[in-house]
């Protein structure tokens, strides 16, 4: 597996999205574990221990797949000449003007990772948004209980969620902290749901987002298991456990074949 030489985002919007994920995730996780979880489950109890273990598993997979998606080099050189980067590249490779290179089986340029999602890191991107959905939904349930039941949130709290500027004129930063994280939680749930709805049907058909616009897919609906293996590798049934678990991808020449 090749590692990208320059892993940093190239555009200002990529930096903003990257920092939103990179900074908010650890702060939200610490807040959830130190403030919310002990407030709901007494420390030392079975539910506290179980929920803490699940949270560690989820945050490890969210951050691990996020980091892997950024670090894996998806660029390629091969069979046809790209008029932009002047290299010979294989079929199903498309040029990214932001990364300034051709990407094998390019899906899209992700602003949150600041890099292109392609053949070698597609698995990590999908696992990132899948675990982000599970983790943010899990946290949303706990935060809702914490905010609206145990802390008896009122109509003003609801207005602050709908209108963020109100947090700067009413209450202290600490009193509004749970509302800020609650908003980030809702954003993560919505973001992950939208991405899963958009990407999963394309993957099951064996395509990528770039081909979705063109209406061309390599395999089709009847080979969804093979299409999943193309993304998650030969050990796809175990690949979800950890981004560190190796799951060898199929021979890259196979992804050029069209039935």
TrEMBL record:
Listed PROSITE patterns: DHHC
Subcellular location: Membrane
Protein EC: 2.3.1.225
Major enzyme class: transferase
GO molecular function terms listed in the Swiss-Prot or TrEMBL record: protein-cysteine S-palmitoyltransferase activity
Swiss-Prot/TrEMBL keywords: Acyltransferase, Membrane, Transferase, Transmembrane, Transmembrane helix
Bilayer disposition of the protein: Multi-pass membrane protein
Main location: membrane
UniProt name for this protein: Palmitoyltransferase
Organism: Glossina fuscipes
Lineage: Eukaryota, Metazoa, Ecdysozoa, Arthropoda, Hexapoda
